[in-house]
Amino acid sequence: MEQHATGRLSLIENVVPPPPPPLADLQRSATLRIHNGAGLRPLPELTETVLRDCWQSRRQRSFWLDLSAPSQAMVQSIANLFGFHPLTVEDALSPEHRPKIDEHEDYLFMVFQSVAGISDETVLPTLGVGHCTTNRLAVYLGVGFLVTIHDRGFAPAEEVAEIVDARDTTMDQHLDLVLHAIVDRMIDQVFPVLADVEDQIQEVEARIFTESDQDVLPTVLKTKRELMTLRRLMGLQREMLLRLSRREDLPFIEPKTAIYFRDVYDHAIRLEENCAILIELATNVAEAHLAVASRRINEVMKFLTIFSTIWMPLTFIVGIYGMNFDYMPELKVWWFYPFVWVVMIGIVVGMLLFFRRKKWL
Fold it and tell me: What family, per the record (predicted)?
């Protein structure tokens, strides 16, 4: 009996509890805002039932579901609940997916990327796409709904959420305006980053002419590579914003909102041009560093060459009189030793004067 009881206890202890459902952490990772036509509706606890009700009544009251660093299972469950294509889930969670816009029957799927900030290790951050730390924003936009997916601490979404909470009429069937506000802040936050990059490149340029810094060239080349990555990112995003600003048969974007996207498109063009200017500046700094390094090497080689040239005749003279011959009559003359010294000193002085006259010194 005791063995049977022990066996039952061990079986109970070895039972692994079932994993929590994918949507169990909605309250922690998601924020839901519902507009009922007169203002934001107060929300109960965020559950799967609430999301299903929002989806079914989205044409009567619009909603914005903001997901911050969700798990793949959670995004997949929401995609199944809302009828999103499974491939969009993979694109939404991929940290290195290029900016894109896909048109589906009932919604638009978009991926935006932007530089998150600047690190102290290098001129630009060193993680994420290429060598830049980026903010990734995946968007589902349709009639009456907006779903945004991003990493934790995404400032543009937090700022727009505060505006929506203060002026809730923004969501009254105008979710494309909410999307514009997020993307606008996402693009604009790159400008101060590039300004810091320019300042640091100029500091590196000043160090080139004031000190011998062996780490300058790797830093500049890494910065140039990161700027090229950022320029490529902005180029892809510029094409997306051009489509949104022209609408080009894209549904769910109102004509009056397209004008606002045109302004963001202009900002993207400016960023791309600024990246091109900074790339050229970094190239000039790298070339200046190579020129300064080459000049320093030439100075060292000139000194060593002059030193070797001066020592060649002295070595020749010393080598002759250092030979062990029995018959060298000049060695018997008492004044020959100081005479050799005078000759060697004269050679050194004469060669230095000659080099100085030729402006080699």
Answer: Belongs to the CorA metal ion transporter (MIT) (TC 1.A.35) family.
- Between 16-30, 221-235, 249-263, the lowest mean confidence (pLDDT) is in 16-30
Residue with tokens 């004067």, as numbered in its chain:
353
The gap between the terminal CA atoms of the chain, to the nearest Å, is 104
How many other CB atoms are found less than 10 A from the CB of residue 194? 20
Q: Which residue ranges does the chain devote to CATH 3.30.460.20?
A: 15-293
Q: Where in the chain is the domain with CATH 1.20.58.340?
A: 295-357
Report yes or no: 176 and 92 within 8 Å, Cβ to Cβ. Answer: no
**Cα dihedral value 218, 220, 223, 225, nearest 10:** -70
pLDDT, tens digit, for every residue of 61-71? Answer: 888 888 888 88
> Cα separation of 122 and 197, whole Å?
10
Mean pLDDT value across residues 327-341:
79
The CATH classification number of 295-357 equals 1.20.58.340
Neighbours of 199 (CB within 10 A): 11
Please say whether the dihedral angle defined by the alpha carbons of residues 56, 58, 60 and 62, taken in this order, is positive or negative.
positive
> What pTM value is reported for the model?
0.74
Tell me the pLDDT tens digit for each residue of 294-317. 888 888 888 888 888 888 888 888
| Superfamily of the domain at 15-293 | CorA soluble domain-like (3.30.460.20)
